[in-house]
Specification:
By secondary structure, the chain is mainly alpha-helical. Helix content is 69%, strand content 0%. The protein has helices spanning 20-33, 37-46, 49-54, 57-61, 63-71, 76-84, 92-101, 110-123, 130-142, 150-167, 170-202. Helix 5 packs across helix 9. The termini are far apart.
């Protein structure tokens, strides 16, 4: 049964909505970024290894391998290290497809296999299931995300409130206005440069 999680997008426009695996894992990482090391240790004690793996950025980047490590009951610290140092693993379906499509497939290392499968997917409407399998693996990982504890809920609220307040400081507003003016000035200058170039080539 998929556990419920919370969505706090109403607290700040920058807060990710807890929709799907990407949104929910991002929400948990926002909590992790806002707690101390001591509370982070408590977080890992409160949640299972499977949850700690599934919420990580490393699992998001390598979801097929993350599922394999979860099924093997690998401790989350070791699993995340393995994910961080490994090329993206392919599903069995994608592997079988590429074995049939790509001569010499078995001679490639894991990194080259991933790049070759990715390239085939983008050029052939994902006929090898590369993108579809990553999406399916992400949806499966979402099932391992457990409900937030009350302490985590409060940490997320504090984090989003602080972020909202920081964005409203005079310095932040002034910086955004300056960046917007610089971007507009750059666009105007580029437009004028192109108009001069057009007149130089084709006349007034």
């Amino acid at each position: 049964m998929r556990p419920e999680t919370y969505s706090f997008a109403h607290l700040s426009p920058d807060t990710p909505r807890a929709q799907g695996y990407a949104g929910r894992s991002l929400m948990y990482r926002a909590v992790a970024a806002s707690v101390s090391n001591e509370n982070a240790t408590e977080h890992s004690r409160t949640h299972s290894d499977a949850h700690c793996i599934a919420e990580s950025q490393e699992a998001k980047n390598n979801p097929v391998y993350a599922l394999t490590l979860i099924k093997r009951n690998v401790p989350h610290q070791f699993a995340i290290e393995q994910l961080a140092g490994s090329p993206r693993r392919l599903s069995r379906y994608t592997t079988r497809k590429m074995e049939a499509l790509h001569p010499g497939w078995e001679l490639l290392d894991d990194e080259d296999k991933n790049m070759t499968a990715f390239r085939h997917s983008t050029q052939n409407s994902d006929s090898n299931g590369y993108t579809a399998s990553l999406r399916a693996a992400g949806e499966k990982l979402a099932q391992y995300l457990e409900p937030m504890t009350e302490a985590e809920v409060q940490a997320l609220i504090r984090h989003t409130t602080q972020r909202h307040n920081e964005l409203q400081t005079p310095e932040s507003v002034a910086q955004r206005m300056y960046e917007s003016e610089q971007e507009k000035r750059g666009a105007d200058e580029e437009g004028e440069r192109q108009r001069r170039e057009y007149r130089r080539r084709y006349g007034p």
